[in-house]
Amino acid sequence: MKNLLPFDGELYDHGIIYEQDEAYKIMEQMLESIAWKHDQVKLFGRVYQTSRMVAWYGDVGKNYQYSGSTKTAHLWTPLLLEIKSRVENLCRANYNACLLNLYHDGNEGMGWHADNEKSIVTHSSIASLSLGSTRRFDVKHLQTGEKISLDLKNGQLINMQGCTQDYWKHALAKSKKVKNLRINLTFRLMK
Ligand SMILES: O=C(O)CCC(=O)C(=O)O
Ligand SMILES: [Fe+2]
Predict the structure, then answer these.
(1) What distances in angstroms separate CA 140 from CA 95, 116, 135, one per listed residue?
(2) Known PROSITE patterns for this protein (predicted)?
(3) Is the CB of 137 under 6 A from ligand 1?
(4) Which residues contact 80 (CB under 8 A, 6 or more apart)?
């Protein structure tokens, strides 16, 4: 499989791994069964609630620390375990946690960041499955500013691994044109 990054990391596009009907069905099931909460972000010492919603799932004890708070992992649902196993086979990696993001429409996105928290196993694979609305995913090199953009579609799987998080940031672009919901699952390997 072709590495989409020219240097300093690895980004792979596995294409659409769930047929459209199935992907939408999974999204509906996720809407009903996942413990969604508004995300809280600390900015300049104040806590803000994002309109984007998140949920954290994983093995027992795989808690997640960011923006000054600890998120306790919910235990895997049967559906999440099924998806995880498919993603693990395709990415040839193992994951023990999953962060789910729910973007109601194009007004919600995610700013530039790297998934380089201390609690993530260094240089491990991070897989991302998209469900619902197509959204633009940007990756930008910290030094050269080189940018790669991907339109992530319903049922599409990508993964980043190696030293990617040391040299590249990524973001989910906002868009006035997107009127519908998107759910994203990022599978991770935590220490
Ligand atoms: O929604 C996406 O595609 C990106 C999510 C992301 O970067 C993250 O959860 O760290
Ligand atoms: Fe990320």
Answers:
(1) 25, 15, 16
(2) FE2OG_OXY (PS51471)
(3) yes
(4) 57, 98, 185
pLDDT digits (tens, 9 = 90+) for 30-87: 999 999 999 888 878 888 888 999 999 999 888 877 666 677 899 999 999 999 999 9
Residue 184 Cβ inside 6 Å of ligand 1? The answer reads: yes
Give me the residues paired with residue 15 across strands: 157
Evaluate if residue 138 carries a pLDDT over 80. yes
What is the residue-averaged pLDDT of the chain?
Answer: 95
Q: Which residues of 162-177 are buried (b: 16+ CB within 10 A; e: fewer)?
A: bebbebbbbbbebbee
- Delimit the domains of the chain by residue range: 10-188
115 lines ligand 1 (CB under 6 A): yes
> What is the model's pLDDT at position 66?
67
Which atom number of ligand 1 is nearest to the Cα of residue 184? 1
186 lines ligand 1 (CB under 6 A): yes
What is the residue type of 180?
N
Mean pLDDT of 23-35: 97
Q: Which residues contact 41 (CB under 8 A, 6 or more apart)?
A: 47, 48, 50, 67
CATH of domain 10-188: 2.60.120.590
Give this complex's ipTM. Answer: 0.99
